[in-house]
Amino acid sequence: MRNLSHKANQFFLALLKIAVVLAALFFIGYKLTSDDQLNFSSFLEKLNEARVFSVLNIFILLLLTFLNWLFEVKKWHKLSSTLKSNTVRKATNESLASFTAAIFTPSRIGEYGAKSLYYPRADRKKVIFLNFVGNMTQLFVTFVFGIIGLIILLFLVKLPFTGMNIGLIIALLFSPFYIYWLARRFNLRIKGFSLRKLEKSFKKIPNDVQWKTLYYATLRYIIFTHQFYFLLLVFDIELPYLLVISAVFSTYFLASLIPTMIIFDAVIKGGFGVWIFGFLGVPEIVVLVIVLAVWILNFGLPALLGSYFVLKYKPQIQNLVH
After folding, report:
1. Dmax over Cα atoms in the chain, in whole Å?
2. Are 196 and 187 in contact, with CB atoms under 8 Å apart?
3. How many domains does the chain divide into?
């Protein structure tokens, strides 16, 4: 009976892995073919016109994508090493496989469950918490740079804002702090944990791990925002660096305020990007093409790579025993 149960577990695990990979492939394909504002043939045509497919440009873009995910892996490696003696190779497997599971789930929930499967049951709550810390650190960096970007943008560009619009921007700037205050005031729960409990758990993480996590998150942010900036240069958008990078920071900040599935991430960023870069005179089609290109590089490709690790996944023996 035990042998039969083991075979049944293996069969269902194989079905689950195939289902996750097929779902990821479907969602990536859906993203590339269902955009009403920019179909895939127009997307490729615009990339060809801008000579994005030159050897040098492809090399630079792929290098930035590699560095982006290298620091994501390093971030998880540092956090997970507080539980076990993890290796960069294993951290890579865990990061990419869990990302494939996250691409079709709201607010990347699938990432938490998938990543915890690589650890004993007794450690799974800690894994979920550490993954939460990594994601929140990345969000914190996005907020800090985004608020700075919005403030600089307001000083550099004469925006035709009414009093209501200015009030909305001020509300957006302070909304993260207000949300944090509310969560603390009413002891709200996040992913099953109260905010006060999360704060206590966070303080138990060694200082060097906290600072390294923040360091890697900052490097990631600088890399993928400058990947966006590089594509603007490729499309011959000649504007002052400070102005453009502030607009990029602002786009990522505003998009991060709306929880969504990764598959719709490009839609949200595209909407805010078109609005913000419209004030700078950047054509709408250019912004949409760049947003989709960045999505493919930093979300689509890693999800495809992660599919390989999903199919290779083998549960730990202690996970099968319980």
Report:
1. 74
2. yes
3. 1
CB 36 within 8 A of CB 318: no
Q: For the stretch 134-146, what's the b/e string if a residue is b when 16 or more beta carbons lie within 10 angstroms of its beta carbon?
A: bbebbbebbbebb
* 147: containing domain: 2-321
Distances (CA, A) of 30 to 193, 199, 273, 290: 34, 39, 21, 18
86-87-90 Cα angle (round to 5): 90
CA atoms in the 13 A half-sphere facing the CB of 308: 6
Q: Cα(226)–Cα(269) distance, rounded to whole angstroms? A: 15
Rounded distance, CA 83 to CA 89, Å? Answer: 16
What whole-number distance in Å separates Cα of residue 21 and Cα of residue 114? 13
**By three-state DSSP, how is residue 261 classified?**
strand
Pick the most confident of 20-29, 59-68, 253-262.
59-68
Angle between helix 241-256 and helix 207-234 axes, rounded to 10 deg: 120
β-bridge mates for residue 194, sequence order: 189
Residues 220-271 pLDDT 10s: 999 999 999 999 999 888 899 999 999 999 999 888 877 665 556 666 777 7
182: left (phi over 0), alpha (psi -120 to 50) or beta: alpha
pTM: 0.81
Beta bridge partners of 190: 193
Q: Do 112 and 132 contact (CB within 8 A), yes or no?
A: yes
Under 8 Å CB-to-CB from 100, ≥6 apart: which residues?
20, 21, 24, 114, 302, 303, 306, 307, 309, 310
Residue 285: exposed, middle, or buried by beta-carbon count in 10 A (0-12, 13-18, 19+)?
middle
Rounded alpha-carbon distances, angstroms, from residue 236 to 167, 230, 233, 286: 34, 10, 5, 10
